[in-house]
Structures are given as structure tokens and as C-alpha cells.
Amino acid sequence: MKKILIIMLLLLIPIVIGLEECPRFAYPKDIPCVIKSTWDADCLGNFTFYNESGSLVYNTLWENSKPYCQAVYNYSNIGTFCGNSTIEDSCITIQGENDKMIMAITLFLLGINIFTFALPFWVNFSESEAANYVVKRMFWVGSLILLWFNTTLFRQLASDWGLGIDNFLIAYWWIFTFGIFASVLIICYIMVVGAMKLMKEAKLRERMGEYDY
User: Fold this and answer.
1) Of 125, 129, 121, 132, whose CA–CA distance to 198 is shortest?
2) 90-131, pLDDT tens digit by residue?
């Protein structure tokens, strides 16, 4: 067991040695990195990092790196994080490299969501009244599921960007999730009942010699 631990430590040494020093503003690709103290001290103690809302997000240890101390920082979420310790305090801001692209994708998905919901109001998908009735409601079911997906994406982005509203969003997301899936079940029930009624009416008109369905 001791031999295994020694081998693991030896394997980790080159990784730690090869790390760059953490800049004040970094990107996720720059993590992990090394924070170095500005003065010589006894390199003992925790280095604890908090997000902008004061929640603990990461904890590391100071190590001896002559002539100063160093600590490995390995938390790549987006946001500003400040660390407190008995040796030195430090802050690091992790910036999103693809914020604009993520926002563009989010707006694109939201646009598809609106289009999917509105399309059944504009288009008839079949000459059959029953088939048209079913397809339109399937589009609305799909738009609700897509809206749930978009809301889940917004929640993840808010967490990654460190907006500090995670607790509120979790409660909202669960309420929204139950509402969405309840709506989907209701629409599916109405769709089945309505389609069966329209099919019966169509067969009745057919027997009576009316073929305009």
C-alpha cells in the first residue's frame, strides 16, 4: 500500500511542477494553476476559497516551494473566487471563453421554441381533421419539452457563471418541471380523447355520404 502511495505521489510531482502561476484573470483552460505567496512563511495551513455569495467552493493546502509557499488551485467554474488563509489572501476571476457563443445558442434554441409553439396556429398539417388535431398538439407537447430543456440550460449557465441565485433557481426549476410535465400529460389526454371523437365523427359523416374530411 505504501509503495502504491509513493508511486502516485511521484506521478503527481511532474504535474504540479509543470503548472503555470495563476493570473488574476484566467480562463477554464488555465486551470489547474499554482498560487504563490509573496513572502517566505511556514507553509502550513488551509487555503479556502469562497464565491461572491460567500459560499465555500474550494479548499486546498499550502505547500513548501522554496523560497516561498505555493498552493494548487483547481476550481474552474466561472466567477470570482477569493481565498483566505493564515499565510496570504488571494482572488481569482475565471472568465468564460465562449460566453457569446453560449448566449447565441441559447437564443437560437429559444427562437426554435417560440416557432415550434406558434407553427400549429399558422399551418394545417393534414387534410384529415383528426390527424391535423393530433399533429398540432404533438407540436405543443414538443415545444413544452423544449422549453423545459431551455430552462434547464439557463439554470446550468447561471450556476456556471456564478450568479449566486442557485437556490432560487433550483426551487423554481422543480416547480416548473412539475408544471411542464403535468401540462404534457393533460395535453396528451386531451389529444387522445379529441382525436377519437373526431375519428368517430368522420366515420359517421362517411356513412352519411359526406366525404369532406
Assistant:
1) 129
2) 899 887 655 666 677 778 878 888 888 888 888 887 777 777
For the segment 158-174, the average pLDDT, to the nearest whole number, is 69
Q: How many CB atoms lie within 10 A of CB 79?
A: 20
State residue 156 phi and psi, 5-degree precision. Answer: -65, -40
Per residue, the 3-state secondary structure of the chain, as one string, reads CHHHHHHHHHHHHHHHHCCCECCCEECHHHCCEEEECCCCCCCCCEEEEECCCCCEEEEEECEEECCEEEEEECCCCCEEEEEECCCCCEEEEECCCCHHHHHHHHHHHHHHHHHHHHHHHHCCCCCCHHHHHHHHHHHHHHHHHHHHHHHHHHHHHHHHCCCCCHHHHHHHHHHHHHHHHHHHHHHHHHHHHHHHHHHHHHHHHHHCCCCCC
- Selection from 96-100, 169-173, 189-193 with the highest mean pLDDT: 189-193
- For domain 2-94, say whether CATH 2.60.40 is its number: yes
CA 23/CA 47 separation, integer angstroms: 17
Q: Cell 505567496 identifies what position? A: 37
Give me the amino acid identity at 56: L
Q: Are 52 and 158 in contact (CB under 8 A)?
A: no
If you average pLDDT over residues 157-164, what whole number do you get? 62
